[in-house]
Design a protein that fits this description.
Strand content: 25-35%
Order of helices and strands: EEHEEEHHEEEEEHEHEHHEHHEHEEEEH
Number of helices: 11
Structural class: alpha+beta
């Protein structure tokens, strides 16, 4: 990550004997050792490579809906508001202390993390949600920007072979299955809070959103759907390359350049810049405009800065789709070469079927 780790602490959430969520806080912050630096790097990398993240900002209140019965016994929906500013206020107090005292604020960071952990426990209890694991708080600096990462991780068992060839069971943090994490751009929060882009979070998988309880814990509201932003960006790149009258090979080369730029930004944990991307794409000779100007001429212009979504890389490289018992995927460069689409008849023609599929088809044909 090539980042400077300022503070790192881990607390634990368990289900106690009364079957309630309970926090077991650590007494102090961990010393920043090479092992902690490596773990912080791995957590940050795992966060950066998670697809489908959201971007948002702090709010003071959120609305909650609940089903209740009226006097006639009929079920009605009742809406109430809840103050969720506690986390933001606590974070601001810590940042004020840091401004006054510099980096020597380890005790203040630890106190902030413990307070936040207890708030998460209360939020889980209020929402009737059970989540256990290790709650990690990490403050670090990268490219002159201060970040705060909060992640809830579980463990996974693995077996080691010792030097004496004995087997030993160990537990390790399961970063691959990290689904509950939020990162704050503390520098933007301090300098440009009006941008409302200082919170980014994993939205979860299979329709489950972190906002169910984790976003309520921090008091955050989603402002930008990163997945939709990236889809719009890729569609705009396709439209721009098509307007530039390039042959298929040239279009493929430029898409590879866009992929390379995406990977650079994902690995660095940085936002995409439309202006930077424009410098990597050809200028349209017919209109004498570049990609940046092209995006602004659209009905819904792209934002100048976009958080990259790793899932967009697949869209750049392949056409994919499934439905009605059919699942298809092929590289974009094959369109017009080995794969042909006729929109008039809604027909896709493939020349040069993969050998393993061809073998299955031939065997089936011989049975019919």
């Amino acid at each position: 990550m090539s980042a400077l780790i300022h503070h790192f602490v881990v607390h634990r959430l368990i289900v106690n004997k009364e079957e309630k969520i309970e926090a077991i806080p650590r007494d102090n912050c961990l010393a920043v050792t090479p092992e902690i630096e490596l773990l912080a790097h791995q957590i940050n990398h795992s966060f950066n490579t998670k697809p489908g993240k959201g971007v948002g900002h702090f709010v003071t209140e959120v609305s909650r809906e609940a089903k209740v019965e009226n006097e006639e016994g009929e079920a009605i929906t009742q809406t109430s508001t809840e103050n969720v500013a506690e986390f933001a206020e606590s974070l601001k107090q810590y940042m004020d202390i840091q401004k006054a005292a510099g980096d020597n604020v380890e005790e203040a960071f630890h106190a902030f993390s413990v307070s936040a952990t207890h708030r998460l426990v209360r939020t889980l209890a209020e929402m009737g949600t059970v989540e256990t694991g290790f709650l990690i708080f990490c403050q670090y600096e990268y490219l002159a920007t201060q970040y705060l990462m909060i992640a809830l991780l579980n463990t996974r068992s693995h077996v080691e072979v010792t030097h004496s060839l004995d087997l030993s069971a160990r537990e390790h943090l399961d970063l691959a299955k990290m689904q509950l994490a939020v990162r704050f751009d503390l520098t933007q929060l301090d300098i440009q809070p009006e941008q409302q882009r200082y919170v980014s979070f994993i939205k979860g998988r299979m329709g489950r959103k972190v906002s169910d309880f984790f976003m309520q814990f921090v008091g955050c509201e989603e402002l930008v759907d990163v997945k939709q932003q990236n889809k719009q960006l890729i569609s705009t790149v396709d439209a721009y390359l098509a307007s530039a009258s390039l042959d298929p090979q040239e279009q493929h080369q430029h898409r590879e350049e866009v992929k390379s730029y995406f990977k650079e930004k994902i690995d660095a944990g940085e936002s995409l810049s439309v202006d930077e991307l424009a410098n990597r794409l050809p200028q349209n000779e017919e209109t004498s405009s570049n990609f940046s100007a092209f995006t602004q001429s659209m009905e819904v212009p792209l934002e100048k800065e976009i958080q990259p979504d790793p899932a967009a890389l697949k869209q750049l490289a392949k056409f994919t789709g499934q439905g009605g018992g059919i699942s298809l995927s092929f590289e974009r460069k094959l369109m017009g070469d080995r794969v042909f689409y006729d929109p008039a008849t809604d027909t896709l023609t493939i020349r040069g079927i993969p050998p393993n599929l061809k073998d299955q088809l031939n065997r089936q044909s011989s049975m019919d």
